[in-house]
Amino acid sequence: MAAFAVARSSCGLLSGLKAYFKTFRQVKHGVASAAQSQLQQQSRRWYSVSHLSVQERIDRKRNAALIGGGQKRIDAQHKRGKLTARERVELLLDKDSFVECDMFVEHRCSDFGMEEDHNKVRLHHRGPYDFTVFGGSLSGAHAQKICKIMDQAMMVGAPVIGLNDSGGARIQEGVESLAGYADIFLRNVMASGVVPQISLIMGPCAGGAVYSPALTDFTFMVKDTSYLFITGPDVVKSVTNEDVTQEELGGAKTHTAVSGVAHRAFENDIDALLNLRNFFNFLPLSNQDPAPVTECHDPSDRLVPGLDTIVPFETTKAYDMLDIIQGIADEREFFEIMPNYAKNIVVGFARMNGRTVGIVGNQPKVASGCLDINSSVKGARFVRFCDAFNIPILTFVDVPGFLPGTSQEYGGIIRHGAKLLFAFAEATVPKITIITRKAYGGAYDVMSSKHLRGDVNYAWPSAEVAVMGAKGAVQIIFRGKSNQAEQEAEYVEKFANPFPAAVRGFVDDIIVPSTTRKRICRDLEVLASKKQTNPWKKHANIPL
Amino acid sequence: MITSTLRRVLLVAKHASFQSRCCVASSRVQYSTVYDSNEKTFDKILIANRGEIACRVMKTCKKMGIKTVAVHSDVDASAVHVKMADEAVCVGPAPTNKSYLNMDAIMDAIRKTGSQAVHPGYGFLSENKEFAKRLAAEDVVFIGPDTHAIHAMGDKIESKLLAKAANVNVIPGFDGVVENVEDAVKIAGDIGYPVMIKASAGGGGKGMRIAWNDDETREGFRLSSQEAASSFGDDRLLIEKFHGNALWLNERECSIQRRNQKVVEEAPSTFLDPETRRAMGEQAVQLAKAVQYSSAGTVEFLVDSNKNFYFLEMNTRLQVEHPITECITGLDLVQQMIRVAKGFPLLHKQEDIPINGWAIESRVYAEDPYKSFGLPSIGRLSQYQEPINLPKVRVDSGIQEGSDISIYYDPMISKLVTYGATRAEALQRMEAALDNYVIRGVTHNIPLLREIITHPRFISGDITTNFLPEEYPEGFKGHQLTSEGRRELVATAAALYVSAQLRSQRFLGNLRVSTTPQEQRQWELCVELEKGSHTVAVSRSGSTFTVEVDGVKVEVSGEWNLASALLPVTINRTPRVLQCLSRDAGGDITLQYLGTQFKVRVLSQLVSTLSAHMPEKVPEDTSSILRSPMPGSVVAVSVKPGDVVAEGQEICVIEAMKMQNSLIAAKAAKVKSVHCKAGETVGEGDLLVQLE
């Protein structure tokens, strides 16, 4: 994206004029050349008449921008265990692929926005709020730069990654910075579902600024150094008289385990950026692009013998759904989203024969894998992301039902549970479902059942597709009768198996668990060309 | 402390080769391993055991055309031995005394299935005379010696008296039952320390403790009698002079934690000469005849450096390590047991029993060798691949990928046996087999096994009781890298990292943007390994990487299959098999190299430079908290909040795999809080007690 490329990579520029020309030579993207040659001519002209003032000014500005807030500020940032924006970008991107834009925009504030060229294939944009310049509070100019990049990203279909390390609105700039926020929010909303948007919170992010990450698809945090809150501990103390630390109020632990605001946390800046690079490779560039397919060394017809014994005989006994997911995924690699929140549902990305898939699974190990408010919302948002970006969805079902109780009912489990139902039903990407054990009641319908346009629905021999478990059913049907144990056995015989669903075609096949990977890989191959559209609408009205 | 002060140190006495001598004690005829399907034997045998040995017995039954019945506890319902059997009967819940030791349920299973005979394997009911009696009462054949022999030999106290009477050399000790703790201290004092406290009904290292002073005797007496009661239902103990038992490679702490269970065995012994072997064999036969023994059994002797030997005990069952005997003799011991039980004479004469080549057995356990040479570990075998594709490798196991290693049973994963014409050949095969053995999901002792079999002292055949504590006085720390080994490992890790990086740039399919990134030619990396850091430059040509580690060139080539658990590479023209256990986005790679797992960190120069700015995470202070070192159940908690404990005082006792482990305070302090109570199940790393 060289149309507005002024400089290329951050190092090398410091050496002045020579490097500056060299830089231009390296840029070789179509549109750019005209503008560049013009500029080049200009600079040559200036050079030839030994009138260096403009050139000198360019260099000086550029150097100033590169140093950011100066060595002192850089050191201060390091002391806090954090990297500077420039170092972060260097880590995130392939060598020599970063192109910076708007280095010359002034403040109204002189920060920088950035444009990036990843892998030389994958383009993504977004300016880190450079903490070393101006404490990271948001200026009007800063916002303007971010908007410019985001518009561009949307136009060409390139993912947006935000590295957030910002103190909040720039009080001095007043309404202008508020406007700046709103401009960014609007871009976040417009880009939602068009290009993947990822936020990585790498420092404090308070006040209005928090809504930008909240609007993006994924929010990651860095442990111990990043915070997200609407109002800080001081304000909390004065308003509600609560004593709370920054970490407790909005640290990585809080948001990944309690509030569900963040999707994952990483150890430090480096760990976060390297993992983000890895994560990025799961995603397509935009909603117009297919999910990426990478070279895969794991045979697609590999049998997984361990799956034949994973479901315990006692239906009350738990097992770990992650064992199944890792067993079938390419190279056992599973990038889990929200691993510490609503753990009764597991969601995340993996690859099957090199192809990215989104995986949703009930987790019998936690709360028997039941669906409650938090797990429904977690699952729904993930399913919608996959659907928006052409990522096939695999669903592993072992669900005893929705969690009963007043706290759930008062909390609105009905409307929250409906979100997951809605998300699965409206999804038009390939949908493959495997019922490993329980698929009871309404929860069976919700979990990507045949009735919600599931493309391929399998059951393992251990599957029980029924309205409810034997004990509960018998207690209701034969209330007050004495021979309940006998009736229970009969119920198990009749309903606690995959046959009732299979004879009606609600599951397509009962498969040997160890062949699951093979079957899924083959089905995905076939379903790759799936085309399905929902009726025209302005947008659906998901029960928010 | 066991140090080198044992003057009468004693060597290998347990020789599987004697097993066959005992087998043949009562019959003859000629040598063969032919499975004669015309020979009328049993129609159906019930195997009253689980795991590896149950599978082993069934294999022979299948060859002999005999139908098999498995018994299992409910947690074992999908175990390999159950699937392998023609019929299976559940005999109770997980705890062994309610299932595999539950005679009523097993008798029911025998009646229900119409089994004509029972093979007890080893452990469980194999040396239980009561069981043998009940079988006899119902006309079911017990495949093993008769009640009289089990009774005589199964009881350590009685067997010693019997051996004395049969003119077999015995070691000094107290020949009666120890009444109580103070009695124990007195007897120990009389015999002289060190002493060994043994369960009279015991075996397999259970209910066995070594004591070096009065306090240890008291503790040992208490723990041993508890263990003996729970494992054998008989808490009688005896005490004798401790000499250590040969090839019980774990002594000292491990004898407390792992308790005298063997790790590596071989046949024949490196120590015995033919004369001693014959003399020993003859005494064994003498003893067998004295008790009218009529099945496979093992007589254990202790041999001192002057080749004097003393009777230790007789095991009236198929030994765990019988495969090595089978390897060098060509016999199928289970087949012989079944035939003898049916009343057929043995097909061999003493002269027909050869020693062909050399066999080595490594017991692969789910345990952490870094903790006291082996604390049990549990888990699910997420990946499991036996090296049976290699020549002359035999693996006796009763598990498969997906199996659970639970706290209820012995943590043995398998017996890995290799053989060859010479000891060196067998050892070499063992090395390869260990390198190619893929076990994921549980911690295992392959690092220790690989170190033992490649240890110069082991190779020279100088093996004593104290091998482990002498060679690893600070505890086992894994393979110690030489500078060359270090370079090899670093180079392989770097090459693996680069292959993964290159692959992550290769996208297939129709991406909108052109997908031909220019491949980076030269990689400047920084590789961290065990606190050391290396500057590494990597360049690639095809599948060969030239890696410069601190200026020294190493060439690594291989297939670089990033999905495979095994990583066969050629390093500087030497073929090696490494294993990649994990590889993550942060550059952390765990490689198994020469048996030991190493954590390597491969970073680009940029990441390495910037890493200096990352804050260090403060690890938890561990001196004031006590965590469970292994999964198990809490037997007793000896403290309550507010108590003041001395350093070394017992805080609680955890039982895992039938072993009781006493956990002690690391410092003198007041107890702040207790997070466990007796009867609870705890996982590895669970917080038990917090001190102030």
Automatic annotation (TrEMBL), chain A:
GO molecular function, one term: propionyl-CoA carboxylase activity
E.C. number(s) listed in UniProt: 6.4.1.3
Reaction it catalyzes: propanoyl-CoA + hydrogencarbonate + ATP = (S)-methylmalonyl-CoA + ADP + phosphate + H(+); butanoyl-CoA + hydrogencarbonate + ATP = (2S)-ethylmalonyl-CoA + ADP + phosphate + H(+)
InterPro entries registered for this protein in UniProt: AccD/PCCB, AcCoA_carboxyl_beta, ClpP/crotonase-like_dom_sf, COA_CT_C, COA_CT_N
Biological process terms in GO annotation: fatty acid catabolic process
Pathway named in the protein's UniProt entry: Metabolic intermediate metabolism; propanoyl-CoA degradation; succinyl-CoA from propanoyl-CoA: step 1/3
A single Gene Ontology CC term: mitochondrion
EC top class named in words: ligase
Span of domain CoA carboxyltransferase C-terminal: 299-538
Subunit structure as annotated in this protein's UniProt entry: The holoenzyme is a dodecamer composed of 6 PCCA/alpha subunits and 6 PCCB/beta subunits.
Family of this protein: Belongs to the AccD/PCCB family.
Protein name: Propionyl-CoA carboxylase beta chain, mitochondrial
Source organism per UniProt: Oncorhynchus kisutch (Coho salmon)
Lineage: Eukaryota, Metazoa, Chordata, Craniata, Vertebrata
UniProtKB/TrEMBL annotation, chain B:
InterPro entries: ATP-grasp, ATP_grasp_subdomain_1, BC-like_N, Biotin_BS, Biotin_carboxylase_complex, Biotin_carboxylation_dom, Biotin_COase_C, Biotin_lipoyl
One of the record's GO cellular component terms: mitochondrial matrix
Cofactor(s), names only, from the UniProt record: biotin
GO molecular function, one term: biotin binding
Main location: mitochondrion
Pathway: Metabolic intermediate metabolism; propanoyl-CoA degradation; succinyl-CoA from propanoyl-CoA: step 1/3
Assembly notes: The holoenzyme is a dodecamer composed of 6 PCCA/alpha subunits and 6 PCCB/beta subunits. Interacts (via the biotin carboxylation domain) with SIRT4. Interacts with SIRT3 and SIRT5.
Protein name: Propionyl-CoA carboxylase alpha chain, mitochondrial
Source organism of the structure: Oncorhynchus kisutch (Coho salmon)
Gene designation: PCCA
